[in-house]
Structure of Alpha/beta hydrolase:
Amino acid sequence: MRFLSETSSVGVREQLFTLHEIPGVLWTPEAAVGARPLVLMGHGGGQHKKAPDILARARRFVTELGFAVVALDVPAHGDRPKVEEYDRVATENQARIEAGEELAVLIAGFQALVARQTVPEWQATLDAVQQLDHVGVGPVGYWGVSLGCGLGVPFVAAEPRVRAAVLGLGGALASAEAAAAITVPVEFLVQWDDERVPRVQSMALFDALASTEKTLHANPGKHGEIPAFELDSTLRFFSRHLR
Amino acid sequence: MRFLSETSSVGVREQLFTLHEIPGVLWTPEAAVGARPLVLMGHGGGQHKKAPDILARARRFVTELGFAVVALDVPAHGDRPKVEEYDRVATENQARIEAGEELAVLIAGFQALVARQTVPEWQATLDAVQQLDHVGVGPVGYWGVSLGCGLGVPFVAAEPRVRAAVLGLGGALASAEAAAAITVPVEFLVQWDDERVPRVQSMALFDALASTEKTLHANPGKHGEIPAFELDSTLRFFSRHLR
């Protein structure tokens, strides 16, 4: 793990780093000493580790809950190089969409492909970050919607350190099997008028989670229109399960 | 409106009353003076105005939010006399269930019948209670699940004083038309394994609400097993919309 830069702003310390060539960012409370809960965040498709919705949530986890938050660029996103295989699949998918294939099925297949790479990357990130004095070994949470859900479901299923997860805007097509291995509390976000994920697919993914405590929050609006009050709910959810 | 008794306990003043022969109960903060938000609560089938889940919620609305709360016995429930017509329908329904008719359809029909009586009763209750010095004319909310949803949907649709409602454990069969007239914010509770209300019916009722702000919370468990943390959410919802 190599630190590239460090800045501080309004109570939040931000450290950019690379870990085995993967660019990441770690946010902690400015004066943090000792172990604390850690939330790993997975960004959306076409976005990156410092996308506005990631930043806004990370700031609140740090300032209001005292947590550490870490995010990485997903392969072929943010500061990471293109991946030839992904480009090839994307081009193929474009042709398949034009030929009438279902968008949700193609998205799911793509996310399953990327997850094979991100699960071990994210696990290595937990290993590294939890060795830092100002993060330490505390409870771990995961937050990710859309692509962050498609990659998050197999990650949460594989990683026993994760004790609670916020997921959503994703369907069961790629990840029903992994979802059945998840037993930790989950808050699951659905956009009622999601133009990318069919409602029935969202419901099927929620249904597949083996967690005894899982709660689905559905709100009107399109894929990108999660209402602001859901962030308040996310804070309370993580506060309840990670503190 | 005739007051029958008054007691106080742990910060909550409880007044039993009758209004045109209907038995009701009003809870307010012990030292309440002046206008405040008022929540009308509708109890479940076979229950009554002081059922444990009504009492527990009312206490928290009063002590944590400073609200007034009012509840009435539904016809043929609690301290109210039997209603011959309802008994007849119940007997008929028993025979129809045995003949293989769908439970949810029969429940919906019964609730629509009862709502024709309760909507005007509840409106008269708001009129009377808001004339009291320690309640006054403030924003009004409604809380009701199961039978309280079946009766609540037509009430909220008909009553412009209601500015926010918590509903749930109910389906669209009886009340889709009334739901389409509801435009205030709604928090809607679904039990994922509800043995009485088919999931698809719950979803259809949520879908039918015309509210631009509506949020569906689904949790695992049977009809009567709403998790405790949903009450915290209800408090925040009413706090956001009625204060």
